[in-house]
Hints:
249 residues; alpha/beta; Rossmann fold; seven-stranded mixed β-sheet; 9 helices; 19% strand
Amino acid sequence: xxxxxxxxxxxxxxxxxxxxxxxxxxxxxxxxxxxxxxxxxxxxxxxxxxxxxxxxxxxxxxxxxxxxxxxxxxxxxxxxxxxxxxxxxxxxxxxxxxxxxxxxxxxxxxxxxxxxxxxxxxxxxxxxxxxxxxxxxxxxxxxxxxxxxxxxxxxxxxxxxxxxxxxxxxxxxxxxxxxxxxxxxxxxxxxxxxxxxxxxxxxxxxxxxxxxxxxxxxxxxxxxxxxxxxxxxxxxxxxxxxxxxxxxx
Length: 249
C-alpha cells in the first residue's frame, strides 16, 4: 500500500464502522475462546498496518502480551507517530517469530495482500501453540472488486468456496478445527455493491471508504455488521467479508 492510502486509513479507522467493527469482533472472539485479562498468553497481530488494533489490545491485555508485525516501513512509521508503537518489521510469509511462540495469531484483511496465501496461513499456524487460535478476516465476493481493491494491493476477494479451498489441506491433515466460519457484513452488501457499481460507471476522485458516515448511520452500520457475526448459528449466503476462527490441534 502507498503511504497516502495508509494515511487515509489512519484518519478514519478510529471511528469508521467497518474498522471499529472488526476490532470489536476480535475482542468478542478472544473472550469466547477463553482469553481474558487475567490469563497468561501471547497474541500476534500479523500485518498490523497502522497499529490501531495492537494499541487497543495493549490497553486491554497489557503491553507484554501483544506483538505486532508489519511489512510496510511506512505503516510502521505511522504506527509510531500516531500511537507510539514499535511494530516489528516482517512479512506474513516469513514471520520473525519462533515456532509455537503465540497463543493467538490475528490477520485481519492481510491474506489477500499476498500471492501465496497458503504460505501465509502456514506461517500463522507455525507460530501458534497447539490449542491456540487463529482469527482471520478476508474481503469477500469478487463482484465487489473495485479500484479500492487495486489501491490497497489486493490479489483477490474470496468466496466461501475459495476460502474453504485455502483451509482444506490443514483440515484434511487434522491440524486444526473451525470454531467459526461465515460471511459477515451481509446487510451492507447491497449498499456497497450498488455504490461500487455506480463508481465503475461514473468514476469520481472522492471515495466513501475514506470518510466516516454521520454518527447515526455509522452506528447502525456497525451494529448490522458486528451483531450477526457474534452468533455462530447465523449463516448469511453472502457478505462483504469472511470471518474465521480456527483452533490449532
